[in-house]
Amino acid sequence: MLNLFTQTGWRFLWLAVIALGLDQYTKTLVVNKIELYQAIQVTPFFNLTHVYNYGAAFSFLHDAGGWQRWFFSIIAILVTSLVLWWLKQTTKNQVILPVAFSLIVGGALGNAYDRLVHGYVIDFLVVYYQDWYWPAFNIADSAICLGAVLLIVDMFKNKEEQDA
């Protein structure tokens, strides 16, 4: 069993735990310290704003009537299971790919927890420029995005190694 955690990508699962923990901790702080829809300006382009997202990315299907809660929860659990399986398949010499997978797992579980427990995802990070606002997001979303970027980096890195 120990070999499974030292010789595969599962050795990076601590990153998923940190992403999940940091996500849930910051969401708890937001719920306890910031009123719903209250915006606190941090910089001229960044606010902390307590909002709920009943949909998926960019509030996709936010007004679908409630079924989307279970749909997105099931998708998150299935994708997390698949990514955990892929993570187990990575080898000891791989670093970027298992780090990417671990961040994606942590972020997916953070948002899935919100959906299952609350019925919505708690978002609070808002970036904007003048009247243009990026949709609110959270630490879980950031972990998923960072993981996706690392997947792309790994893809190009492996292509360069194969071409050489």
TrEMBL record:
Its EC number is 3.4.23.36. The chain crosses the membrane at residues 67-87, 94-113, 133-153. GO terms for molecular function: aspartic-type endopeptidase activity. Its main location: membrane. Keywords: Aspartyl protease, Cell membrane, Hydrolase, Membrane, Protease, Transmembrane, Transmembrane helix. It catalyses: Release of signal peptides from bacterial membrane prolipoproteins. Hydrolyzes -Xaa-Yaa-Zaa-|-(S,diacylglyceryl)Cys-, in which Xaa is hydrophobic (preferably Leu), and Yaa (Ala or Ser) and Zaa (Gly or Ala) have small, neutral side chains. The keyword Membrane applies. The active site is at D123, D141. It is found in: Cell membrane. PROSITE patterns: SPASE_II (PS00855). It comes from the Bacteria. InterPro entries: Peptidase_A8. It holds the Pfam family Peptidase_A8. It is a multi-pass membrane protein. This protein specifically catalyzes the removal of signal peptides from prolipoproteins. PANTHER family: LIPOPROTEIN SIGNAL PEPTIDASE. NCBIfam families: lspA (TIGR00077). Belongs to the peptidase A8 family. This is Lipoprotein signal peptidase. It comes from Paraglaciecola algarum. The lineage of its organism: Bacteria, Pseudomonadati, Pseudomonadota, Gammaproteobacteria, Alteromonadales. The gene is lspA.
